[in-house]
Design goal:
The protein is α+β, with helices and mostly antiparallel strands and 344 residues long. 36% of the residues lie in helices and 27% in strands. Helix 2 runs antiparallel to helix 7.
Length: 344
């Protein structure tokens, strides 16, 4: 067994390699790796095991160095999940041991794994929910799988005259970003920096691996969502809206149209990303659509204690989020530009 540490962005055949040998999603792609490199200057360290020069197992990893939050490895930052690829548990365990040895040499604080199917016996550091839908069903079958309230909301949006556009241009993503700033402020959080979304446009959307779906009311954009697709797998990545128009139910119409669009364009599954169990509003919204709900567990190995830990402080603390709701939007954008590269 040969183990190499590789940077997918330096291999023009990377996507072919993973598609020919594994069952990857967008987060394994070279394009997503390039988003993380371009936006935050993160360093990729993808651990690839080969047997007789044939890929056998893969664990994607990003190195984060921060004077504020310390050095660590994350598989992968700003990714809802990062599945281990490979069918042999022995190969994957060998890669995990190699990652731990690498982390010790690099003096990491910890390494975080975000794979849904973790292969070591360990308590998770965090538990989320994720939701999957089978898109091989007909449109009518998917419609009948919706909760009654969801169907009513979609019909209401249609009656109110909302129009949905599917777009793959930079102005549509800029438009989404303006709504994202409003949404994040409402939740007491800074938005990801604009250059992050610029990188998403350049590496994902412009390469036909994603799109922006927007709802318009009287020619005014009132809600938008960003979707990715790769290897016939669709993903809802980001959503934003103007709260003044929530009564028109634009998000329900966007989601339904996006589900049907991805079904018609050859996707076989549709994922809603991760949801924090404490976010009851978002969780209830995602339970309207007939998706299969499963737990998504993260695992964090701490080098100081040489073992997995149950939890770690991550992101913004509650006091900061309460105060952020009163901070001007332009200051939140500045905070986002500074903070996110240290969070991962």
């Amino acid at each position: 067994m040969d183990i190499r540490i590789v940077d997918p962005c330096l291999n023009p055949q990377w996507n072919k390699l993973i598609l020919d040998n594994f069952d990857p999603d967008i987060f394994h792609s070279a394009e997503w790796c390039q988003v993380l490199k371009s936006a935050y200057k993160f360093k990729p360290a993808y651990f690839l095991a080969t047997e007789n020069e044939q890929p056998a197992a893969l664990i994607p990893l990003i190195k984060i160095k921060s004077l504020i939050t310390g050095s660590r490895g994350v598989s992968l930052p700003f990714s809802d999940y990062s599945k281990f690829l490979g069918n042999d548990c022995g190969d994957l365990k060998l890669l995990i041991e190699q990652i731990k040895a690498y982390g010790r040499r690099e003096d990491w604080k910890y390494v975080e794994f975000r794979t849904p199917d973790f292969i070591e016996e360990a308590e998770p550091s965090a538990i989320f929910f994720t939701h999957d839908l089978d898109l091989t069903k007909s449109s009518s079958a998917l419609w009948s799988g919706l909760k009654d309230s969801c169907r009513r909301n979609i019909k209401k949006a249609t009656r109110e005259g909302l129009k949905v556009k599917f777009e793959k241009n930079w102005p549509s993503l800029e438009q989404f970003y303006r709504l994202q700033v409003l949404t994040r402020k409402r939740h007491g959080l800074p938005p990801q920096p604009l250059k992050f979304f610029k990188s998403i446009y350049e590496n994902i959307i412009s390469r036909d691996l994603g799109l922006v779906v927007s709802a318009y009311y009287q020619n005014k954009p009132i809600a938008a969502s960003v979707y990715f697709h790769f290897n016939q797998k669709a993903l809802f990545k980001y959503g934003a809206s103007d709260p003044k128009f929530h009564h028109l139910r634009p998000n329900n119409l966007i989601m339904w149209e996006a589900i049907d669009w991805h079904r018609e364009n050859g996707c076989s599954t549709f994922n809603l990303g991760r949801t924090d169990p404490g976010d009851e509003g978002l969780l209830n919204y995602k339970r309207l659509w007939g998706f299969k709900e499963t737990e998504l567990k993260y695992h964090l190995f701490c080098f100081k204690i040489n073992g997995y830990i149950h939890s770690a402080s991550k992101g913004f603390n509650p006091t900061m989020t309460r105060l952020a709701k009163f901070v001007p939007s332009f200051l939140l954008e500045v905070i986002g530009r500074i903070a996110y590269k240290h969070i991962g």
